[in-house]
Recover the amino acids of this structure.
């Protein structure tokens, strides 16, 4: 394994995690993005880290506000509504 500044300890709880990419839930080993994705090619993107506590997404509305504000700042269309994204997040949580 290559070592760098982003090393992390393996966590067996993540062995079977499912990841939502482009409309599909994929096993972590199969989850890939294209090398031609603009986030990879030029590094454009926005993100928010979410916390799940006792089955509740903490401060979800505030996180989504920041996500949409960040996307607007760089002229990025997120490709779905807040309601659609919330549904995809819940779908991912349910799968895991």
């Amino acid at each position: 394994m290559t070592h760098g500044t982003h090393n992390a300890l393996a966590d067996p709880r993540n062995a079977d995690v499912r990841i939502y990419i482009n409309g599909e839930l994929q096993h972590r080993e199969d989850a890939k993005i294209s090398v031609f994705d603009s986030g990879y090619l030029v590094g454009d993107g926005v993100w928010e880290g979410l916390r799940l506590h006792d089955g509740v997404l903490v401060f979800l509305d505030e996180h989504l506000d920041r996500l949409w504000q960040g996307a607007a700042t760089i002229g990025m269309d997120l490709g779905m509504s807040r309601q659609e994204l919330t549904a995809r997040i819940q779908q991912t949580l349910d799968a895991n």
Summary: Helices lie at 38-41, 60-73, 82-95.
